[in-house]
């Protein structure tokens, strides 16, 4: 039922002239799903309060509730005669609904409240539907979805994940939002966050790391106290871009975290020297954006200046970790060898135990040709040796053949003892050049490549082939 509903929504979105891409589809679907989800939760809480003889004040006023303007049905299931559609619907959404919900941020008592999330979401996006009839059709499809069972939430979260994945294939901007889930799950198996620890992602995108961490930590026999800890005091994220922020909020809500601790902010604007113990976390999982040209005033927030965003994020993560805290961070593999990152590599090795480097093939990230590595480190003690593993699925990865969980199983198993194998090896800290700090991935167990030929030898070979070709052509001419 849910898959059919999402397919129907997609058809309506493709016919709407105000929407141009998968990014628009995800954004517009998100705010509609959010309001339907919120109404279902409010109804559920109101029913519980009535059964217990308590008063309950819904978050939204009556005229902003889903049933008042979005649903085409009365409470008894009959069709409403006063349902908004066409220009009336667009006018209500643009001039009443969005402006009202936007103000919730101003009145919220804390960024952690659902009121603040409502205000933040509707401050960051706009309604892009131009046709009130298209919007009405989408509203009626969503109105048929129910969020009141765990099975429903699970299926909806899977469908939403597939939508985020499609965004990742829609272009370079969309690709920033999606990290392959098998890779995240392998990182989690190594880091293994526990209830009572906090998990942080300062460049959370669609919150893929946080929702997978929630799934990893949510056991069937979890106590009510531990469940509340997971809900409110475990997962923290920050995101700069408005669309990614909206999707992160919705993604976490659909996975069962009702008031996500996600802030809409540029993480790199924070001076790392101002980070205090209360700001630090036990676990960091992240895939920060990379790219050069970070502004000079932003670079002033970091002791090691760099125009490369990823290098600034590494400094942020080091200082965001508690003593004994653990991190797994995806970064371009050039970080291990670039000369402009030598000082940062030295700081990482001096302040943290960089115990594991996972080397990933180029097409692990769909739509991106760059090679990446995952850095696993623990804060509070120096690096003495680093274990490397070269991931090789022994097949071509691509859009139709993405990375699978089983292809990371050997890495996860060998990492427990950091054993050497045909794909893994250990580098001692003393063997790293003290000046260049070059930590490139060089598998000593890989078969040696044939040495490159000298240019003179190549030219000689080309001339010989040319002479052979001329001789054959001369013979053919003699036959004619």
From TrEMBL:
The enzyme's E.C. designation: 2.1.1.72
A GO MF term: methyltransferase activity
Residues in coiled coil: none
InterPro entries found in the cross-reference section: D12N6_MeTrfase_N, DNA_Adenine_Mtase, DNA_methylase_A-5, DNA_methylase_N6_adenine_CS, SAM-dependent_MTases_sf, T1MK-like_N_sf
Reaction equation(s) it catalyzes: a 2'-deoxyadenosine in DNA + S-adenosyl-L-methionine = an N(6)-methyl-2'-deoxyadenosine in DNA + S-adenosyl-L-homocysteine + H(+)
Residue ranges of domain N6 adenine-specific DNA methyltransferase N-terminal in the record: 13-106
Family: Belongs to the N(4)/N(6)-methyltransferase family.
Protein name: site-specific DNA-methyltransferase (adenine-specific)
Organism the protein comes from: Sulfitobacter pacificus
Lineage of origin: Bacteria, Pseudomonadati, Pseudomonadota, Alphaproteobacteria, Rhodobacterales
